[in-house]
């Protein structure tokens, strides 16, 4: 996938994202972002394949991606969705460990791309990035842990209400069967709960 030229709108978004995690001057930030690799990934692009050793991490500026695994029976189980201003990193228990998940783009997506095996050297070249990267990763992990802990305690209907309140855009951006899988429901159960909550007008994509 070739690196894309950054549009002014994407450049502004990138500066604003970094600025929210840093007190660096805007002029300095703009100089820094010129060196950040940004790529366009088309819908359906597999970013990380289950069973492969992860080589890259990503930060979404625009777009949507899904994390899932395939169980022993060949069933896909969705474990997360990533949208704007979220990072995608598969954490394993050591180096050269196979990823238990796949990540695929659900939309054409523009992302910052980092090479995991070069991350340390990149941080040394741009030490001001180190704190920013750590904050981004920590924020993402905290959100994931909070969501997982909440889902364990919730009833199916509470999970749907939680998603409608926290991430309503997913109901119109991801296929219904994938959203149902993420919520631990069948597509039919998700439809029934939505109707019961008076949200049947939220049409998920096919």
From TrEMBL:
Classification via Gene3D superfamilies: Jelly Rolls
InterPro entries: cNMP-bd_dom, cNMP-bd_dom_sf, RmlC-like_jellyroll
Annotated SUPFAM superfamilies: cAMP-binding domain-like (SSF51206)
Domain Cyclic nucleotide-binding span(s) in chain numbering: 20-84
Descriptive protein name: Cyclic nucleotide-binding protein
């Amino acid at each position: 996938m070739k690196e894309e030229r950054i549009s002014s709108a994407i450049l502004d978004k990138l500066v604003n994202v970094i600025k929210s995690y840093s007190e660096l001057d805007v002029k300095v930030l703009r100089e820094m972002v010129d060196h950040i690799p940004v790529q366009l990934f088309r819908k359906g692009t597999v970013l990380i394949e289950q069973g492969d050793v992860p080589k890259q991490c990503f930060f979404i500026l625009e777009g949507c991606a899904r994390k899932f695994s395939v169980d022993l029976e060949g069933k896909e189980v969705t474990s997360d969705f990533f949208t704007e201003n979220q990072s995608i990193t598969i954490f394993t228990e050591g180096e050269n460990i196979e990823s238990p998940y796949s990540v695929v783009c659900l939309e054409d997506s523009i992302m910052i791309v980092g090479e995991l095996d070069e991350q340390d050297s990149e941080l040394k070249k741009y030490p001001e990035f180190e704190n920013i990267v750590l904050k981004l990763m920590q924020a993402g992990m905290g959100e994931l842990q909070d969501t997982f802990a909440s889902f364990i305690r919730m009833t199916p209907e509470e999970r749907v209400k939680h998603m409608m309140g926290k991430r309503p855009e997913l109901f119109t951006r991801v296929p219904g069967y994938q959203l149902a899988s993420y919520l631990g429901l069948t597509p039919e159960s998700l439809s029934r709960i939505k109707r019961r909550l008076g949200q049947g007008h939220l049409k998920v994509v096919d």
